UniProtKB/TrEMBL annotation:
Native source species: Furfurilactobacillus milii
Keywords: Activator, Cytoplasm, DNA-binding, Phosphoprotein, Two-component regulatory system
Function: Required for high-level post-exponential phase expression of a series of secreted proteins.
GO molecular function: DNA binding
Record-listed 4-aspartylphosphate modification sites: D58
The Response regulatory domain, residue ranges: 2-124
Entries under Pfam families matching the protein: LytTR
PROSITE patterns: HTH_LYTTR, RESPONSE_REGULATORY
Residues covered by the HTH LytTR-type domain: 144-247
Protein name, as recorded: LytTR family DNA-binding domain-containing protein
Length: 248
């Protein structure tokens, strides 16, 4: 799932994107955002992200395609996506309902740049989408999305074995059941996107998926993962893992 913002005014696009990032974090919705000013760019990326996605679309775009027409074309590819119209023209709200694009909401720009008044409207729309997702996909597996060599890779969180910090670089190695990736980022950044309670991030340089721990030697500080990788920790550090496993 991707959250698209299509707004041709750069200042408004950046502000709305920042608000969305903050609210998604507060609601623990791990959804990447694609922010774009040109509707044709949104349409061009849809084959790689068929959805269901979330779309915040400005109605009055400085392009041959306005927000409502963009929504019609999105519906051809993503019939179950969540479309939210964003506009200063509240008089066009009725048009969005009759346009056969099945919008999830209409967000007025009246209070844009006034976070105290704008944010509650934005949050209510996101909560509505979140509630619907939980009803329609209650057992949908959690994913972690990473950027690797210019590509966005979507990994199932239950396939993650461990994440290791690369020394002296702001990079981490993400190890899964069948692959490993070296990506830009930090342990802290990736930990904030992991939703399951079986991830142990009490180490400074590692995150371990305890479901994939095969053996632990608490005396020597050795941890063997399900793929055979052996990780070594100090005796003082391994105690944190022992306490975490006992609490579970």
């Amino acid at each position: 799932m991707i959250l698209y913002v299509c707004e041709d005014d750069l200042k408004e696009r950046l502000w709305l994107t920042t608000c969305l990032e903050n609210e998604l974090k507060e609601l623990n919705m791990d959804i990447p955002i694609e922010s774009e000013g040109r509707p044709e760019k949104v349409l061009a990326t849809l084959p790689d992200h068929p959805g269901p996605n979330i779309y915040f679309l400005d109605i009055q775009l400085n392009a041959a395609v306005d927000g409502i027409e963009l929504a019609r074309r999105i519906r051809e590819v993503d019939p179950l996506g969540y479309i939210v119209y964003v506009s200063i023209r509240e008089d066009r709200a009725f048009e969005t309902i009759t346009s056969m694009t099945m919008p999830t909401g209409f967000l007025s720009k009246e209070f844009m740049f006034d976070a105290e008044k704008f944010t509650p409207q934005l949050r209510q729309i996101l909560v509505t989408i979140q509630d619907h997702l939980n009803q329609v996909h209650p057992n949908q597996p959690a994913y972690l999305e990473i950027k690797n060599g210019g590509f966005l890779i979507r990994l199932r969180q239950d396939d993650l074995l461990y994440i290791e910090k690369v020394r002296r670089l702001k990079k981490v190695t993400v190890v899964t059941t069948n692959n490993r990736y070296e990506v830009n980022g930090s342990i802290h950044e990736l930990a904030s996107h992991l939703t399951a309670d079986n991830f142990f991030n009490g180490f400074q340089s590692y995150i371990l998926n305890t479901e994939h721990i095969q053996t632990v030697n608490f005396t020597l500080g050795h941890v063997t993962m399900s793929n055979g990788d052996e990780l070594n920790f100090s005796r003082g550090t391994i105690k944190k893992l022992r306490d975490f496993i006992r609490e579970k």
